Amino acid sequence: MAGWLRSLLGALLLLEVAAALSFLHHRYEEMVQALFHVQSQCPYVTRIYSIGRSVEGRHLYVLEFSDYPGIHEPLEPEFKYVGNMHGNEVLGRELLLQLSEFLCEEYRRGNERITRLIHDTRIHIMPSMNPDGYEVAAKQGPDSNGYLTGRNNANGVDLNRNFPDLNTFMYYSGEISGPNHHIPLPNNWKSQVEPETLAVIQWISSYNFVLSANLHGGAVVANYPYDKSQDQRFRSHRRTVNTPTPDDKLFQKLAKTYSYAHGWMHRGWNCGDYFADGITNGASWYSLSKGMQDFNYLYTNCFEITLELSCNKFPPEEDLERQWMANREALVAFIEEVHQGIKGMVSDENNNGIAGAVISVQGISHDITSGDMGDYFRLLLPGTYTVTASAEGYQPQTVTTTVGPAAPSLV
Fold this sequence. Notes:
Structural class: alpha/beta
Largest sheet: 8 strands, mixed
Helix content: 25-40%
Strand content: 15-25%
Order of helices and strands: HHEEEHHEHHHEEHEEEHHEHEEEEEEE
CATH architecture of the largest domain: 3-Layer(aba) Sandwich
CATH class of the largest domain: Alpha Beta
């Protein structure tokens, strides 16, 4: 009995050591190895693909979780996490690697919650959008890393100030009853963006993403759109004017889902700042132009928030496990938020799906469109809504539906 107990204790000790060793900072090659290791452990529910390359030629890898990897299933929503957009903000990168390993391990163990999530959701995880900047920051390491060292890409450009500015067009068009969704890009937009930004724009144009978060550092708060203030008279990026989207209450709920599932974000007092409930409207904090979360909302069907996850942009390795435990439930709970509101198929009299049909919700001046197969997903808070589907060449159809607090209503 004593020998059996010693063996058990030894095995547990090995497990603890193995777990502790996994909480490391991963350079590019190590990150790639970690992703392919997860894929090899869960080959039937994962796929690795690259959306393009960085300035210095590093792949922008994405790890996908799905019961049918590589295939969009009708009525199954697409979700994404993007980390390390600023190269020196590294916690998100490590958390997404940990999340990938966690999803794989829990799926293999038969965890019902994780199994259901992977079977009902197509999850895309990009640990690093700026691998070049990360390498610059990692050379200095956490002890001597400058506040801006490695933040930008290899061309010295801040990727979160590099997307086409659709906010200005939207604010102007709103005054003349212009489009409130899928705002067209300027003709010369490709010449104005970096390779990493171009790759992401092409990526989000190719997948009908419904919900997303991009992971940053330097504060602890869940930040939701709009990031850019409508008041154009003030050019200072520190001008603070609350600038809500038509989906403001929904965005607040999404942000609170993460904040209250996080170990301490919801307390509000972090890093010398105070944010009630641990959330903030982006422009209310400080206004920034050409950011990724506003671009997602204005150009695609995707609702994205920005997660600021640590006071220290490059936390030491001994803090990574504590940070993972603080974020683990929040990362999973936020993915589950993709399953709320309404979803359905837009089809013609012969049951053929209609792509690009516009889904309008009365009282909310922001529309979404159906995907290539005719399926659509509209995130909504619980309540009763009047919803209209319209497409060129067809008579519009309007229905009234009630959204509950659990699974999405099928309309």
